[in-house]
């Protein structure tokens, strides 16, 4: 019984670290699906610790599988036949929890699937002198899912011609018609979905 409790505590610890490692990307999706602005970057501070949390998760589950698969010592006694273990001691439970942990840890790689595909609409340009390009430095992005959320917010602004957001460079480059919108309006849209524009630079295109 004590072994089962210890085993299950180990699985719980591994699952908790897997959840913690993915919170920085799960939260923006939950914020988007729930329509809750300002929630997106709640756990963005976890992002720098993500590799360590993943390493702990892998270690915990590797140890759990080793303990479960290693040959058991044979005890020579006149005991009754081995009693079949319960579900809580089974490989089935370990397999289910391991699969859940893998899905959580790899969440950033498929988070984009939860966002609608943004289509960059064609904008009729009446005066080329009105076309501007703005580079926004953004704080709070942690994965590709974050870029999709920002793109979704920008795509709704009338006058935006083209945009490209990257979480790796932590910025967003937007071409827009200054007669229809402004860099400040675009910055407001980015801030509204939960991220923070730390600087913006506008130039003529």
Please tag this protein with its features.
205 residues; Alpha-Beta Plaits; 4 strands
Averaging pLDDT over every residue, what do you get?
A: 83
Overall geometric form: elongated
Task: Kindly report how far apart the N and C termini lie.
Answer: 70 Å
Number of strands: 4
Q: Hey, roughly how much beta strand do the residues contain? A: 15-25%
User: Largest sheet, if any?
Assistant: 4 strands, antiparallel
Radius of gyration: 24 Å
Characterise the protein shown here.
It is a single chain. This protein has 205 residues and is α+β, with helices and mostly antiparallel strands. The protein has 2 domains: 2-73 and 85-111; 115-204, 2-Layer Sandwich (Alpha-Beta Plaits). 46% of the residues lie in helices and 16% in strands. The chain has 6 helices and 4 strands. It has a 4-stranded antiparallel β-sheet. Helix 1 (2-34) runs antiparallel to helix 2, helix 1 (2-34) packs parallel to helix 3 and helix 2 packs antiparallel against helix 3 (91-105). The radius of gyration is 24 Å and the shape is elongated. The model has no long low-confidence stretch (mean pLDDT 83).
Would you summarize the structure shown here?
Strands 2-3-1-4 form a 4-stranded antiparallel sheet.
Write the SSE topology.
Layout: H1 2-34, H2 50-69, H3 91-105, H4 107-110, E1 131-139, H5 144-155, E2 160-166, E3 171-177, H6 183-192, E4 196-204
Antiparallel strand pairs: 1-3, 1-4, 2-3
Helix pairs in contact: 1-2, 1-3, 2-3
């Amino acid at each position: 019984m004590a072994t089962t409790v210890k085993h299950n505590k180990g699985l719980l610890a591994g699952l908790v670290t897997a959840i913690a490692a993915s919170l920085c990307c799960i939260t923006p999706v939950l914020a988007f699906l729930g329509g809750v602005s300002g929630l997106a970057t709640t756990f963005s501070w976890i992002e720098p610790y993500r590799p360590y949390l993943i390493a702990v998760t892998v270690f915990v589950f590797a140890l759990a599988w080793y303990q479960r698969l290693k040959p058991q010592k044979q005890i020579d006694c006149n005991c009754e036949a081995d009693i079949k273990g319960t579900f809580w001691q089974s490989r089935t439970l370990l397999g289910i929890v391991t699969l859940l942990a893998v899905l959580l840890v790899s969440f950033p790689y498929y988070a984009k699937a939860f966002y609608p595909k943004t289509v960059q609409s064609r904008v009729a340009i009446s005066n080329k002198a009105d076309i501007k390009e703005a580079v926004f430095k953004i704080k709070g992005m942690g994965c590709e899912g974050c870029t999709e959320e920002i793109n979704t917010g920008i795509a709704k602004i009338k006058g935006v011609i083209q945009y490209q957001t990257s979480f790796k460079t932590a910025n967003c480059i937007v071409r827009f018609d200054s007669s229809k919108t402004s860099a400040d309006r675009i910055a407001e849209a980015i801030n509204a979905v939960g991220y923070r524009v730390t600087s913006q630079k506008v130039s003529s295109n």
